[in-house]
């Protein structure tokens, strides 16, 4: 059940032992938190957007929501998510299993600061039954992130909670 592409990506980085398989589906923040045994905020949700007709990944804490003005300030466009029926084609993973690992290197991965408040966060690992336990710094390394950003609102500690 482990996604081979993700496993190989994480093995190359030395983190393959962090993959966790779950008995039940973890396709939503709520389901993931229940299966992993953490707060919903500690789930690292990987969202895919179109910016200038090209895919961009933003990973944020499970309790965060995209702030349109902050997103526009960084990307110079309103946030527009990739339509559900095109996510696998453009990103390489089905909705519910999208992760920032093993994707085409031309797709920028941004990490939102909403995750920095946690010791560990849990992004999906390529399907809706697996996750990875990483520190925010490890996520930055493993995802080969473009950088950290601040495009969320509503999370505990944000200015616009």
* Low-pLDDT regions: none
Q: Rg, please?
A: 14 Å
Strand content: 15-25%
The CATH architecture can be named as Alpha-Beta Complex
Helix-strand category: alpha/beta
Q: Output mean pLDDT.
A: 95
Largest sheet: 5 strands, mixed
Spatial order of strands in the largest sheet: 6-2-3-5-8
The number of domains: 1
Instruction: Please estimate the helix content.
Output: 10-25%
First CA to last CA: what distance?
37 Å
CATH topology term: YbaK protein
- The secondary-structure element order is HEHEEEHHEEEHEE
Distinct helical segment count? 5
Q: What sort of overall outline do the alpha carbons produce when their principal axes are compared?
A: globular
In the CATH scheme, the class would be Alpha Beta
CATH superfamily: YbaK/aminoacyl-tRNA synthetase-associated domain
Tally of DSSP β-strands: 9
Q: What is the topological layout?
A:
Layout: H1 4-13, E1 19-21, H2 29-36, E2 43-51, E3 54-61, E4 65-66, H3 68-75, H4 87-91, E5 109-112, E6 122-123, E7 130-132, H5 136-143, E8 147-149, E9 152-153
Parallel strand pairs: 2-6, 3-5, 5-8
Antiparallel strand pairs: 1-7, 2-3, 4-9
Structural commentary:
By secondary structure, the protein is an alpha/beta fold. It has a single domain, classed as YbaK protein, CATH 3.90.960.10. Helices cover 24% and strands 22% of the residues. It has 5 helices and 9 strands, in the order αβαβββααβββαββ. It has helices spanning 4-13, 29-36, 68-75, 87-91, 136-143; strands spanning 19-21, 43-51, 54-61, 65-66, 109-112, 122-123, 130-132, 147-149, 152-153. A 5-stranded mixed sheet has the order 6-2-3-5-8. Strand 2 (43-51) and strand 3 (54-61) form a beta hairpin. The longest helix is centred in the N-terminal third of the chain and has 10 residues, at 4-13. The protein is globular, with a radius of gyration of 14 Å.
